[in-house]
Amino acid sequence: MQSALKNRLFVKEGPTKNISINVNYDKLEQIGEGTYGVVYKALDKQTGKFVALKKVRMETSAEGVPSTAMREISLLKEINHENVVKLHDVIMSDNKLFLVFEFMDQDLKKLLESRRKEFGSGLPEPIIKNYLYQILNALAYCHMHRIIHRDLKPQNLLVNNNGGIKLADFGLARAFSFPLRNYTHEVITLWYRAPEILLGAKIYTMAVDLWSLGCIFTEMMTLRPLFPGDSEIDQLFRIFRTLGTPTDSTWPGVHRYPDFKPLFPLWDARHIDDFLPELNEKNQQKVFYVSNSVYYNRIIVIIIIIIKNKNILTN
């Protein structure tokens, strides 16, 4: 497997390197851990700059290298955008796989947690708008290159101390083509998962990324997850209780999704002021004028208005 890996992985200047990780990098501290492995803050001895070393957990795949790591490397070597985290190198060291990324100061989740502890209120409006603009730029680039991220959440958005934010962790991302193919619905962390995926859709589009971003946007404003479900059905019902149970008039074809049930409870859409109290009356009217006709628009339209209207958060 390792020889096959070396033949398949290339990052800019050449194939995967098989050297000791300690030759070029000094590990300084562990800054993250998950099912994928462990992330360290490290110092690049050649450049004197900080990097993030992602040590891939090899035992998660019977073949050695997890498919998520292979997918992330494959996609990131093709991506070059200022709002997508850069993959600098791929190194095999003592039969361990390390991905070398540019270093960012923290992720959005940690930033929101510190904001909650220190101020108890959402991020300032200019920061939210700046972050949204950068994230939308990254998503537009990915979608134009036919890549769906499929795991957009605060933990996968990395920020620096200069106001920058970058899209990271492409382990669940997929390149798509037309006609669209079937995809797994076991993607996207539950709280940020689009309703069509919760309803069992096997074919979906980049709209699932925009749904996730809509959830993240409200979380930046309120410091609370918009739909903090504890199971798939609870997640779905939280969405329905807020946006209303979809029908064929508000969401044409919704009854054809595998997990849609005609006996779902019928909830009316809540007023947007209930969960986004920062919107003034004029902007509430704008939201409902655009969003009431199509169910899915009820979340993504909020993002559009924020970007276009400088005074959306003023009373």
Q: Can you lay out the helices and strands and say which pair or pack?
A:
Layout: H1 2-8, E1 10-11, E2 14-15, E3 17-18, H2 21-24, E4 25-34, E5 37-44, E6 50-56, H3 67-76, E7 87-93, E8 96-102, E9 106-107, H4 108-118, H5 125-144, E10 147-148, E11 157-159, E12 165-167, E13 174-175, H6 195-198, H7 207-222, H8 232-243, H9 281-291, H10 297-308
Parallel strand pairs: 3-7
Antiparallel strand pairs: 1-2, 4-5, 5-6, 6-8, 7-8, 9-11, 10-13, 11-12
- What profile does the largest beta sheet have? 6 strands, mixed
Coarse shape: globular
Number of domains: 2
- Low-pLDDT runs: 1-15, 289-293, 306-315
Rg, nearest Å: 21 Å
CATH homologous superfamily of the largest domain? Transferase(Phosphotransferase) domain 1
What top-tier CATH class of the largest domain fits best? Mainly Alpha
What's the helix count? 10
CATH fold-type name of the largest domain: Transferase(Phosphotransferase), domain 1
The strand line-up of the biggest sheet is 3-7-8-6-5-4
What's the average pLDDT? 81
Roughly how many Å apart are the termini?
A: 61 Å
- Structural class estimated from helices and strands: alpha+beta
The portion of residues assigned to helices is 25-40%
**What fraction of the residues are assigned to beta strands by DSSP?**
15-25%
How many DSSP-defined strands? 13
SSE series: HEEEHEEEHEEEHHEEEEHHHHH
What's the architecture of the largest domain in CATH terms?
Orthogonal Bundle
Keywords: ATP-binding, Kinase, Nucleotide-binding, Serine/threonine-protein kinase, Transferase
EC number: 2.7.11.22
Domain Protein kinase: 25-315
GO molecular function: ATP binding; cyclin binding; cyclin-dependent protein serine/threonine kinase activity
